[in-house]
Design brief:
Alpha-Beta Plaits, single chain, 3 strands, 8 helices, mainly alpha, 67% helix, 3-stranded mixed sheet
């Protein structure tokens, strides 16, 4: 058992190390691209490039929040913070989603200001810069591909970077069309489309983050499945007062009252370990049970 715990600790440490590298690489390359894209967008008077730069900047800040969150996950628990600082990863995800919404509002506002007042734009320059963005965003997203289902922040980073690549592709197409048609108003139109994409991509992340911040049941946990696992044990006659919440965007916890058919504590200890093992397979990593020796209605 101790060997399994040691192996789990080693795997978790290796996972965090890989994640830290992925975040640092993503932050550095995307920060450089944001600077380039904003400068070119400003001098070309391209709202599409400026909007995309703002989108990428929000992702850089989001990656920074997530990196700090993973650093905080390694901080030891204290007498005041008995779970440590793992929940900072949830707060980081919530801040990231709020930041993306603010970015969306800013893009829409600027786009409205430019309606009917669009300057001449060089489509080839827009397309070339956006092509660089596709390469950087796809490369960065691939850094999170392997571990994206293990943590909410990783999944958010992966989806945002992949979404950035798709947006950049749209900007490339827009630049080509502008080059051949001189329809400069398309630059403003694509900025509105970027805003819509941002809003759609952010909504689920905001919903999940807010639920976890309020100690709601994580989206990937099925309460009925939890009850089914517990009640499948013939030694258990009932379960109530179930509470499931997220310790971090990576770990979940649970407490519950279990009603034992017989007053055999040794039997209960064996069943308890079986239940905990099964719950780990559905992403509940810490479970605590209170034992009741007689069957009763919920709330007794």
């Amino acid at each position: 058992m101790e060997a399994n715990h040691s192996e789990h600790h080693h795997q978790h440490g290796h996972f965090l190390q890989n994640v830290n590298k992925a975040f640092i690489i993503g932050i550095v390359f995307n920060s450089l691209f944001v600077i380039i894209e904003f400068i070119v967008g400003y001098y070309q008077s391209s709202l599409a490039l400026i909007s995309d730069a703002g989108h990428n900047l929000s992702d850089v800040i989001g990656l920074g929040f997530s990196l700090v969150a993973f650093k905080m996950m390694k901080v030891e628990a204290t007498n005041k913070y008995t779970y440590g600082f793992k929940k900072f990863s949830i707060l980081a995800s919530l801040l990231n989603s709020l930041l993306l919404i603010i970015t969306t509002i800013a893009i829409v506002y600027e786009g409205i200001q430019r309606i009917g007042n669009q300057d001449e734009i060089q489509g080839t320059v827009i397309s070339m810069v956006a092509l660089i963005g596709i390469f950087i965003n796809v490369s960065s997203a691939l850094l999170f591909l392997k571990d994206k289902e293990k943590d909410l922040n990783l999944k958010g980073a992966y989806l945002h970077l992949l979404g950035d690549a798709l947006v950049a592709f749209g900007v490339v197409v827009t630049g080509v069309i502008i080059y051949y048609t001189h329809w400069y108003w398309l630059d403003t139109v694509i900025s509105f489309l970027i805003a819509i994409i941002l809003l759609v991509a952010t909504w689920q992340l905001l919903n999940d983050s807010l639920r976890l911040a309020l100690d709601g049941i994580p989206r990937n946990i099925d309460l009925e499945k939890v009850k089914e696992i517990i009640l499948s044990k013939p030694e258990i006659s009932g379960v109530h007062h179930i509470h499931i919440w997220a310790i971090s965007s990576y770990e979940n916890a649970m407490t519950a009252h279990l009603v034992l058919k017989d007053n055999d504590m040794l039997e209960f200890e064996s069943v308890k370990h079986q239940i905990k093992h099964q719950l780990e397979h559905i992403n509940i990593h810490h479970s605590t049970f209170e034992l009741e020796m007689k069957d009763c209605e919920e709330g007794c």
